[in-house]
Amino acid sequence: MTAEILVHELFKKYPNGIEALKGISLEIQKGQFFTLLGPNGAGKSTLVKVMTTLINKDSGDFCIAGINPEINQSKIQKIIGVASQDNEIDPTEKVENLLIFQGRLFGLTKPAAVKRTNELIQLFELEKERNKKAGVLSGGNKRRLHCALALVHRPQILFLDEPTVGMDPVARANFWEVITQLNCKEKVTVFLTTQYLDEADKHAFEMALIVDGKIQYSGTIANFKKMVNPIGELSLDDSYLQFVKALSDQELTNN
User: Exposure winner among 9, 48, 66, 73, fewest CB in 10 A?
Assistant: First the structure.
């Protein structure tokens, strides 16, 4: 298999000097459904921002689809889609117009951008919101719009940072149906961060667990659950809680 994302010894400091990432190394294969888990403030969103070229690293290396961002950042931006917690959209612009404009930014012709917009509006069930201004959308519909915008140019790698926050259960189920189809049928590599561990357990295959800027586990979800509890079978949620508590207890003992 071909590695789609390679990260080696990545370091990043906050402006106040505190390290957000402390030597992160990852390898994610092409077509993989990967999830990055960790407590709030662990460094998940910082890592996503570095890999999607939104902020600079301090040291270390990474490449996306064999492309070095220091050599060709613009090429990376063309093959990735990013639905970030920090995505800003013009609240005064209509949903349909935002999607068409995004398509045009990525070089689609006007007819192609309109066609892709119609496909995504249908895919994410935004038909009723088509002519609404983005600023009046519910939180869940804004998240769906963010994801639709990330897919306008048909990226080969999709970064989803807490994508279902604010969605009701039906919207969440419909959203994951779309994403799993992209991953299974179109072989889009998915990089997910989420606090909904049931989503990660159901849809992802491989995971990494980051705590305080360091990777504490990297491998399959199945092996993580076996590692935490070799005798019985725990959910990812219970395994995660047990593992993080053990880390915290160990840190207190060491101190």
Answer: 66
Q: Residue 183 contacts by C-beta under 8 Å, 6 or more apart in sequence?
A: 31, 33, 189, 190
| CATH code assigned at 176 | 3.40.50.300
pLDDT tens-digit readout, 103-112:
999 999 999 9
